[in-house]
Design goal:
Shape: elongated
Number of strands: 0
Distance between the termini: 9 Å
Amino acid sequence: MISTGLILLIVGLVAGIIILKSLGLVLIIAGVVLAILGGTGRAIGGRRHYW
């Protein structure tokens, strides 16, 4: 999720498309939050990890 967000963010910056920048940023933030929660051992959606 983090890598997809990073790709969308870069493409959005290069192409100048605002929605891609926004989606990329949202995916990066969500991926980081899920990675941190998964790393602490908290169950996310009934699973110990999200991948």
